[in-house]
Amino acid sequence: MDIIIGTAGHIDHGKTALVRALTGVDADRLPEEKRRGITIDLGFAELNLEGIRFGFVDVPGHEKFVKNMLAGAHGIDVVALVIAADEGVMPQTREHFDICRLLEVKTGIVVLTKTDLVDEELLELVRFEAAELVQNSFLENAPVISVSAKTGAGIEELKEILKNTAQTIPVRENETVTLLPIDRAFSIKGFGAVVTGTLVSGEIAEGAEMELLPGKDSSVTKKVRVRGVQTYGKTVVAAHAGQRTAVNLGGIDYTEIERGMVLAELNNLRQTQIFDAQIEVLNNAPRSLKSRQRVRVHVGTVEVLARVQVLNERNEIAVGEKGLAQLRLETPIVAVPNERFIVRSYSPQRTIAGGRILDGLAVKHRRRDFATTRTRLEKWLAANAQNDKHTELRLFLETADEHGLTTSDLQARTGWRKEILENILSEVIAKKSIIKAEEFFLTRTAFENLLEKTFLEIESHHRHEPLSRGIGRETLREKVFAHLPIEIFRGALGELEKRDLITSEKDIVCAASYNRILSPIDQELLNKLQQIYALAKLEVPVLENALAEAVIGTKVTVEYARKIFQLLLDTGELVRVTPEFYFRREYLTNLVGKMREFAAAAPDKVIEVAQFKDLAGVSRKYAIPLLEYFDREKVTRRAGDKRLLL
Q: What is the pTM of this model?
């Protein structure tokens, strides 16, 4: 069993000394920490008690280093709230406690240190202060232990409490993709870049291909290879969630890595600069959290500046209240649903709120959409509380509407492991609440809306162009699916055909029930055009002349006659040889037959232009276009001035 314990408390209250007394490790590793006698950055140590491995994250207690404290507070299972018996509850005691509560740390221990410096009466007073601080919180019934790192008093009892506490820690959920927020990056001679952090989910195995997602100054992910893995100083094949982990990376220099980056599985997560969240403002915050307020947001090991957009009519979340908001970040981070974060005021810096991410890849909401967004987020919260992943998935898809999302999109959106996501997708598709269009998934509502719009557009075309065979496939796509993936377009047409609502032929789409019915005038024009081309045989008029002849004695225009002419092309009665010359198909078929008879009698199967003119009974004006047409149709192949019959 692996348990991560984070210390918390005011500066000089003995957090580092406590860790040293428990583990024998001095977590102050920096020369400046040694010189100044205070913890500045994160320190780490390990304690193994009867098969239970405790990874200690020692955090600085000075108010100037709360940023560093927050980088170590993520991913902890147990908090050791340290209060010095000679000073009692101090400002950073309260802030660290608030941070742990806002991060929803579930378990903890209250440790009263430096008991060798006080008498029992003062110690009792500090116990009372501590009880008052943690009243009505997750630490209200937590063990309280008095110790002295100097004399060793209470240390063994504390170890027993740690062992007992470990038994109450639930097994970490194994649904989220691998995520290692990086708190340190350095180089080891002969090995190269090494990163460390608390592995909050998934596993990291030697040889795995992974990626580093951006820190403050980067908008590009970096692919890396895991060359080696260590947990608690020992080389392992793989590290698992809940372990302090060191990873040797290939393909990158350590100078390219900084605290706040995330090591994740390849192509599973994406960076974001906007996320939707539920936020709780502290009771002791100086004022409410308001829209457009600039704040410092701490997610994982990163601190980033952001602007708040509260999603209510008042544009604020009052002190001591919860509300929904969107955070618009100044630099990209990685954010997954349910991840906790802390909000601190921009200046002066102090913790004012915290919350959890609901949609890590949100779009910027317009004011008119606030009510709809609130409803969706409230539904997501309710579904999440019930572990209703079907509803969670549907709500994420609702944000994409008709654009749909791919499996890759959904994995980045939900943060779920691939196998979990695929199982959920299979279930919702079977229930037909989600529709799959090739690689894309849509809600049934969005897909049905697309089908309706598509069919209405086809019917509209028939009404406005009653002589047309149907609407062009690309025209239909441009009108209804202009900004949507082509896969969704194909999926929609396929579904309409499956329902027998439309038919398609090559590039033309029409309603299945559509029948072209000609008016008497239309039929008269059609008959005239048929007669013109029938009488002309292979010496056809230019198209414009044929149309002009057809409208003589009528009140219709040449342009209208062109639409009737298109019917002859649609049915295949006429064949286009050039933009000017069109021939009846039967005459062309007869001519091909004559050519084949000629070829059978010719020893070389060659026909010259002059021979073709005589065979067809046409002048060169028609012979050359016809021969070029037969070349295109693979009836003949040109060889100089001759044609080889195929």
A: 0.79
